[in-house]
DNA sequence: CTATTTATGTATTGAACGATACATAAATAA
DNA sequence: TTATTTATGTATCGTTCAATACATAAATAG
C-alpha cells in the first residue's frame, strides 16, 4: 500500500491545511454566527462550490476546525499536564502558559473553545452543544490528571470542584484576554488563581 | 409640574417594562447575533413599526436592555459589596450569591454581560465594545471596593490583579453555568476560588 | 483518442435578515 | 367639529444569508 496521493479527477488548487488555518482564524476571531460563508470563501481563497465539496457545510467546516483546534491545543494541554510529575507545579505551569497563550502570538485572543457559543439561537443548539461537549471533555481531562495525582492533594479534596475551577480559570482568563488585558495582567491573575491551590499533604 | 403621563397621540398598547423584560430574556439567552427582530417582535407582542418607533433599532434596543440589566444587577452587586464592612466576608458572600444567581431562578443561566459577545463580526464591533465597556466598569467597581478596604489586605497587594481575578471568577462561573453545572457545583467552585483570597493583616 | 472523475468559476437560488412605506386607528388640541 | 399627533397592522423593501445549478477545466482510465 504505497502512498496514493494522486486521485483521479482534476487536482485541487488549494492546500487543505492552509485553508483550514484561514477558516480557524476567522471562526476564532468572529465566532460561528459572526462568520459568514462569504468571509470564509474570501479568506480561504476558494469558490463556494469548492468549499462545499470539500467540507460539506458551514457547520461541518466549523466542526472540522474545532477538531483541529482541540487536537492542537488539547494535546499541548495534555502533554504539559503530564510532563511535570509534581501536581501543583504542573498546574501552575499550565495556567501560566495559558495566560501567555491567550494573550500572545499572531492569533486571536482567548481560547476558541472556552469562548465558543455561550449564547446562540435555538437553530444552532446542536452546534453549540458540540462546543460545550469539548469544554466538558477538557474538564474531564483536568479531573483525570487530578485523580492521577490525588496523593499530592489533601485527603477528601473535591476533585470535581477543583477541575471545574481550572476550567473556570481558563474561560475567565479568555474573556479578560478578549477585553484587551495583556500577558502581564493575565500572569498576575494566574498568580492569584494559584493561591487557591490546596496545600499538599507534605506541607 | 404634575406627572404628565398622558401625551397627545394614540396611546401605546404595550407596557414598556414588560416588553423590555421579554427582550432581555431573549438577548440574555440567545445573544445579540442569535436573536432576530422577528423573535423580538413575537416575544414582545408588538408590530415591527412599534418596536422601531419606541426603541429605534435592534442595536439601540440591545443597548437599552443592557442598561436595565446593568442597573439591576450592578446595583445589587454594589449594594452587596458595601453592605458588609469586612472585605473578605463581603467578597465571599458576593461570589456565593452570584454562584446561586448564575444557576438559579426563572431566567437564563450565566451573566448576560460576562458572556456578552466575546466573538463577533467586524460589523458589530461597536456593539460588542459596549458590552466590553460594561465589563470594564465592573472590574473598576471591584477595584474601587478593594481600594476602599485595602487596610484589610496585606500591604502591597496587587489590587488590579485581584479585581481582575474577581471578574474572571464571575465570567468563568457564567460559562460553567451555561454548560449546565448546577448551583451546588458552582458553590463548590466558589469555595475553591475564595481560598485564593489574601490573608488579612490581622491573621 | 474517448470516457470518466473531480474541481473550479460564474451566476443564482429561496429564505431570513434588519428596517420601512403606507394607510388606518385612537388619542388630544383648538 | 376639524386638525394634529402618535401608535398600529399589513405588506413589503433591499440586502445578506447559506447553499446550488450549470457549464467548463484538468486530471486519470481504458
Notes on the structure:
The structure is a homodimer of 203-residue chains. With 203 residues, chain A is mostly helical. Helix content of chain A is 65%, strand content 0%. Chain A is built from eight helices and no strands. Chain A has helices spanning 16-30, 37-44, 48-55, 58-83, 87-103, 125-148, 159-178, 183-195. In chain A, helix 4 (58-83) packs parallel to helix 6 and helix 6 (125-148) packs across helix 7. The termini of chain A are far apart. The mean pLDDT of chain A is 94. The structure holds a DNA duplex (30 and 30 nucleotides).
What's the helix and strand layout?
The structure is a homodimer of 203-residue chains.
Chain A: H1 16-30, H2 37-44, H3 48-55, H4 58-83, H5 87-103, H6 125-148, H7 159-178, H8 183-195
Helix pairs in contact in A: 1-2, 1-4, 4-5, 4-6, 5-7, 5-8, 6-7, 7-8
The first copy, chain A, binds a DNA duplex (30 and 30 nucleotides) through residues 6-13, 36-38, 46-50, 52-54, 57-58.
List the main descriptive attributes of the protein structure presented here.
homodimer, 203 residues, mainly alpha, 65% helix, 0% strand, DNA-binding
- Binned strand content of chain A: under 5%
How would a textbook summarize the main sheet of chain A? none
Would you tell me the structural class of the helices and strands of chain A?
mainly alpha
By oligomeric state, this entry counts as homodimer
Span from first to last CA of chain A? 58 Å
Identify the most extensive interface between protein chains.
Answer: A-B, 53 and 53 residues
Stretches with pLDDT under 50, minimum 5 residues of chain A: none
The percent range for helix content of chain A is 55-70%
Tally of helical segments of chain A: 8
Shape verdict of chain A:
elongated
Specify Rg of chain A, calculated over alpha carbons. 20 Å
Q: Mean pLDDT across all residues of chain A, rounded?
A: 94
What is the strand tally of chain A? 0
**SSE order of chain A in H/E notation?**
HHHHHHHH
